[in-house]
């Protein structure tokens, strides 16, 4: 307490501020004593020796500093917090493979509009990627874990180790416009579409994403390795003898040109992505950048170029998020549009993509029903991505028109439709095989793609399946295999194309999406039949067409093959359905059946110098008569479905997020509005 006596006793005050303590003062009379009590006493003494003004200034300074501290703490809080979260995020997205440094972790930006500057597209180099400006985690259910480069077949024991070995995967991109991650198909489909004209929005992050992000990758197994090896062998042939051309002729070591658009290469792009074949993908991408030109005076088939080229480019865009592919998709999409300029708006079969003209085949003004009704998934998706509704409008109109047409038989459609009148022609013949097959497939798939809202599509699909049950289902002898025959002017034929083997997969997909359980029962019966179409044949490979025995005859199997039908074109349909069946049931027998088929492809269709070939005679194991042609769908579909069939990772192209087009190119399912 301050008093006059104390004031008199205290040394004269100097009115300046100094808090410097000299060593002598600090040591004091008692010499150096570093005890805590001494230090406290000494400080107090010094404090007391200060003038009032000095003390006030010091206290003011402390108070001022304290206030500043509080203010800066609150304003720094947010950035600090986000910094902390970001580093946590970074930890969460650490690559699963030690040593693989992913600058772009499982995250992709919203789809870019196709008019993004092509020149800004990155050279695809999955290795070393710049961080995108804003980081969003894609769901791991869309993450495809890449196999190692230079994969070699390993024993089961080795496989997990292989998948854990470091992968050199970082490389520079030219810009940040497109982001590519070899973490896999790390897309979150942009689910914002309600109509093609609606503006593209940033997809929302599903609530479960963070938990999913932490899921362990599923290692590639031995059978998948075998598929990779088969793909590489096929690719070697294509690269050595047919690079940039439509199809490989593996025996003559040359190529076949159909549209002159590198069909095999484009069809195979997303397969390479899914299989994790980075180097091959990068090489192919360079070809697309430098050599793929649609400005060509060439007639292309609308359906084939839509499902293989447009579909292949769109799905590759979705998987890689590389705007190059969207740009090319938009280009080919626009060039195909003249096909719809017909009196009925039912498109012509052929388009000259350089001249912008379209026409039907020379001998008729009809189009094939399956062709005009199996281009919808692709054109609808193109509208969604570009915001240009004309693509979707054109194909939706076809579906609406077909929905109203007469000439159906309990939902079953004839095979031809006239581009002038818009009416079905050649009435009375009904099949689930060639010329009608994917009409049924796309009814269901469009309904799923659009968020299960377009009731007419579902109606037509349900009616058609009832029509199949009523008119086309029969059982063979002796094994009582359920099969889908054909109806011609009231007469049942026990003929079934291999193409019909898409049906078990489609039925299973419908059942998975809430359609009646008996669709799944039928799927199970039909896939058994499709397998028997392989198993009952000498090479273990199915012919193009079989005839089933309706009556038991001694020494006869269920399956009969006519000489004209005993070729095998390396088609995918059975493997495709095996994939769906395994995904939805988990029954390993489907994987085993697929494995048998792969081995038989290797045994009878593999050409030692590279590539696989179609064969003419599945009944002659000692000479299957190679045809010298590898169809693009062998890489686009058959091997892709094989790889997916052998995977136990349901998130490897999750069927609740993606819908496969009829050429096995996955496209995103749109979210419900
Ligand atoms: C492919 O082009 C498509 O799967 C199409 O739907 C049918 N034909 C071949 C495969 O067999």
UniProtKB/TrEMBL annotation:
Recorded superkingdom: Eukaryota
**Region (Disordered) residue spans:** 86-217
Name the residues that bind Ca(2+). Answer: 662
Q: Which cofactor does it need?
A: Ca(2+)
List the Gene Ontology MF annotations in alphabetical order.
Answer: calcium ion binding; mannosyl-oligosaccharide 1,2-alpha-mannosidase activity
Give EC number(s), comma-separated: 3.2.1.-
- Keyword presence, Transmembrane helix: yes
- Annotated GO biological process: carbohydrate metabolic process; ERAD pathway
> Which residues constitute the catalytic centre?
304, 437, 544, 573
Q: Key word Phosphoprotein present in the record?
A: no
Pfam families documented for this protein: Glyco_hydro_47 (PF01532)
- Listed as disulfide-bonded, the cysteine pairs are 501-530
Show the ranges annotated as biased composition (Basic and acidic residues): 147-177, 199-216
Q: One GO cellular component from the entry?
A: endoplasmic reticulum membrane
Q: Where in the cell is it found?
A: Endoplasmic reticulum membrane
The record's catalysed reaction(s) read: N(4)-(alpha-D-Man-(1->2)-alpha-D-Man-(1->2)-alpha-D-Man-(1->3)-[alpha-D-Man-(1->2)-alpha-D-Man-(1->3)-[alpha-D-Man-(1->2)-alpha-D-Man-(1->6)]-alpha-D-Man-(1->6)]-beta-D-Man-(1->4)-beta-D-GlcNAc-(1->4)-beta-D-GlcNAc)-L-asparaginyl-[protein] (N-glucan mannose isomer 9A1,2,3B1,2,3) + 4 H2O = N(4)-(alpha-D-Man-(1->3)-[alpha-D-Man-(1->3)-[alpha-D-Man-(1->6)]-alpha-D-Man-(1->6)]-beta-D-Man-(1->4)-beta-D-GlcNAc-(1->4)-beta-D-GlcNAc)-L-asparaginyl-[protein] (N-glucan mannose isomer 5A1,2) + 4 beta-D-mannose; N(4)-(alpha-D-Man-(1->2)-alpha-D-Man-(1->2)-alpha-D-Man-(1->3)-[alpha-D-Man-(1->3)-[alpha-D-Man-(1->2)-alpha-D-Man-(1->6)]-alpha-D-Man-(1->6)]-beta-D-Man-(1->4)-beta-D-GlcNAc-(1->4)-beta-D-GlcNAc)-L-asparaginyl-[protein] (N-glucan mannose isomer 8A1,2,3B1,3) + 3 H2O = N(4)-(alpha-D-Man-(1->3)-[alpha-D-Man-(1->3)-[alpha-D-Man-(1->6)]-alpha-D-Man-(1->6)]-beta-D-Man-(1->4)-beta-D-GlcNAc-(1->4)-beta-D-GlcNAc)-L-asparaginyl-[protein] (N-glucan mannose isomer 5A1,2) + 3 beta-D-mannose
Q: Which UniProt keywords apply?
A: Calcium, Disulfide bond, Endoplasmic reticulum, Glycosidase, Hydrolase, Membrane, Metal-binding, Signal-anchor, Transmembrane, Transmembrane helix
**Where does the sequence pass through the membrane?**
56-76
What does the record give as its pathway? Protein modification; protein glycosylation
User: Its biological function?
Assistant: Involved in glycoprotein quality control targeting of misfolded glycoproteins for degradation. It primarily trims a single alpha-1,2-linked mannose residue from Man(9)GlcNAc(2) to produce Man(8)GlcNAc(2), but at high enzyme concentrations, as found in the ER quality control compartment (ERQC), it further trims the carbohydrates to Man(5-6)GlcNAc(2).
Which PANTHER family does the entry mention?
A: ENDOPLASMIC RETICULUM MANNOSYL-OLIGOSACCHARIDE 1,2-ALPHA-MANNOSIDASE, MANNOSYL-OLIGOSACCHARIDE ALPHA-1,2-MANNOSIDASE-RELATED
Identify this protein by name.
alpha-1,2-Mannosidase
What organism does the record attribute this protein to?
Oceanodroma tethys
The gene that this protein is the product of is: Man1b1
């Amino acid at each position: 307490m301050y008093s006059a006596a104390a004031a008199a006793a205290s040394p004269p005050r100097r009115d300046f501020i100094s808090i410097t303590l000299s060593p002598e003062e600090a040591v004091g009379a008692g010499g150096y004593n570093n005890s805590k009590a001494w230090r406290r006493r000494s400080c107090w003494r010094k404090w007391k020796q200060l003038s009032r003004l000095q003390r006030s200034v010091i206290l003011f300074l402390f108070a001022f500093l304290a206030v500043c501290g509080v203010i800066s703490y609150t304003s720094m809080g947010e950035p600090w917090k986000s910094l902390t979260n970001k580093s946590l995020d970074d930890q969460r997205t650490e690559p699963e493979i030690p040593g693989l440094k992913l600058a772009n972790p499982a995250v992709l930006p919203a789809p870019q509009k196709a008019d993004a500057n092509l020149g800004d597209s990155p050279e695809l180099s999955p290795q070393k990627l710049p961080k995108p400006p804003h980081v969003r985690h894609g769901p791991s259910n869309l993450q495809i874990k890449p196999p190692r480069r230079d994969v070699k077949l390993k024993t089961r024991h080795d496989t997990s180790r292989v998948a854990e070995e470091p992968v050199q995967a970082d490389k520079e991109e030219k810009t940040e416009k497109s982001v590519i991650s070899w973490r896999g198909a790390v897309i979150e489909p942009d689910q914002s579409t309600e109509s093609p004209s609606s503006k593209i929005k940033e997809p929302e992050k599903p609530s479960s994403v963070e938990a999913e992000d932490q899921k362990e990758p599923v290692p590639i197994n031995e059978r998948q390795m075998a598929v990779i090896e088969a793909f590489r062998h096929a690719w070697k042939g294509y690269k050595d003898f047919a690079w940039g051309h439509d199809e490989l002729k593996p025996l003559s070591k040359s190529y076949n040109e159909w549209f002159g658009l590198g069909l095999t290469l484009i069809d195979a792009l997303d397969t390479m992505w899914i299989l994790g074949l980075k180097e091959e993908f990068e090489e192919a991408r360079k070809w697309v950048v430098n050599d793929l030109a649609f400005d060509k005076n060439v007639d292309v088939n609308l359906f084939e170029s839509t499902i293989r080229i447009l579909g292949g480019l769109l799905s590759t865009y979705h998987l890689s998020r590389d705007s190059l592919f969207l740009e090319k998709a938009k280009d080919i999409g626009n060039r195909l549009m003249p096909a719809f300029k017909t009196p009925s708006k039912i498109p012509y079969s052929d388009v000259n993509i350089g001249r912008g003209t379209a026409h039907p085949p020379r001998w008729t003004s009809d189009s094939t029903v399956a062709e005009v009704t199996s281009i919808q998934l692709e054109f609808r998706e193109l509208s969604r991505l570009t915001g240009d509704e004309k693509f979707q409008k054109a194909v939706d109109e076809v579906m609406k028109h077909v929905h109203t047409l007469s000439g159906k038989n309990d939902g079953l459609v004839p095979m031809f439709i006239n581009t002038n009148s818009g009416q079905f022609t050649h009435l009375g013949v009904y099949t689930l095989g060639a010329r009608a097959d994917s009409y049924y497939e796309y009814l269901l798939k469009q309904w799923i793609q659009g968020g299960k809202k377009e009731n007419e599509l579902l109606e037509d699909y349900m009616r058609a399946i009832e029509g199949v049950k009523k008119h086309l289902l029969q059982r063979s002898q002796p094994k009582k295999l359920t099969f889908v025959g054909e109806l011609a002017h009231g007469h049942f034929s026990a003929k079934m194309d291999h193409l019909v083997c898409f049906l078990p997969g489609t039925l299973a997909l419908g059942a998975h999406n809430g359609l009646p359980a008996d669709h799944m029962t039928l799927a199970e019966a039909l896939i058994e039949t499709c397998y028997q179409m392989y198993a009952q044949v000498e090479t273990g490979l199915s012919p193009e067409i079989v005839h089933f025995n309706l009556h038991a005859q001694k020494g006869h199997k269920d399956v009969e093959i006519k000489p004209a039908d005993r070729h095998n074109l390396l088609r995918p349909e059975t493997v495709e359905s095996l994939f769906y069946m395994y995904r939805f049931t988990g029954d390993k027998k489907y994987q085993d059946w697929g494995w048998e088929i792969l081995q038989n492809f290797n045994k009878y269709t593999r050409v030692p110098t590279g590539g696989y070939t179609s064969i003419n005679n599945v009944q002659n194991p000692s000479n299957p008569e190679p045809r010298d042609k590898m169809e693009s769908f062998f890489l686009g579909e058959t091997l892709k479905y094989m790889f997916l069939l052998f995977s136990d990772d349901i998130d490897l192209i999750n069927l609740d997020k993606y819908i496969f087009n009829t050429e096995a190119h996955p496209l995103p399912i749109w979210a419900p509005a």
